[in-house]
Amino acid sequence: MTALLEVEDLKVAYGKIEAVKGISFSVEAGQIVTLIGTNGAGKTTTLRTLSGLLKPAAGRVLFDGKPLSGIPAHKIVALGLAHSPEGRHIFPRLTIAENLQLGAFLRSDKAGIEKDIQRAYDLFPILGERRKQAAGTLSGGEQQMLAMGRALMSQPKLLMLDEPSMGLSPIMMQKIMATIAELKSQGMTILLIEQNAQAALSLADHGHVMEIGKIVLSGTGQDLLHDESVRKAYLGED
Ligand SMILES: Nc1ncnc2c1ncn2[C@@H]1O[C@H](COP(=O)(O)OP(=O)(O)OP(=O)(O)O)[C@@H](O)[C@H]1O
Ligand SMILES: [Mg+2]
User: Staple partner for 32: which of 69, 99, 186, 190, CB 3.0–4.6 Å?
Assistant: First the structure.
């Protein structure tokens, strides 16, 4: 079986700075795969490239068997690859309901859109309670929920989450992680970037550790959780 996402020797540069220096990994349908690593390792750059927001310098990306090279970002969303970006980027003056509607901008099936908005409210009840409120009034954790809900509105085959727990309280973080597990149990495929390596590896089928543009270690989530070098570098143990 070929994987839903195949990344082969991907290189991405900002001018002369090579931020991603030839990485390869794959994501099978139904899996959670996580990229962890230090600040500046190239994780966000990788996701932005997969979304079509950055053009790779080299390498190949196959999504659902199709090469993504040269396909613009909105068409990549239409193919089923959704991205909940770092820093959330919700529209603060629009209501929660309007933000969710925008996530469905490529769809015209009104009834289906309404059903999926209801699904987002089921997943995150607070969004339903506040549906008419400006999104900018939500707390950081609630805005993260809205960003995830919005990404789901495109009916993705693969959901990419860039640091969904950034800046959240431990309780909010647990809530977000539980929701990621729930999405997986519903069959969603997820590529997760997280600073919280413990939480991400606990959920993940596979993980890859990135350092300055390269993957330096790969394994199952459990293998990496118990790996001594990972424990020292990312889980705060000596
Ligand atoms: N727009 C840009 N122009 C120039 N360099 C950039 C740009 N964006 C990122 N970089 C550089 O590329 C490298 C990788 O950055 P990236 O944001 O992908 O890292 P990251 O792994 O997501 O880090 P973090 O954990 O801090 O979010 C860094 O050295 C960063 O300074
Ligand atoms: Mg980042």
Answer: 190
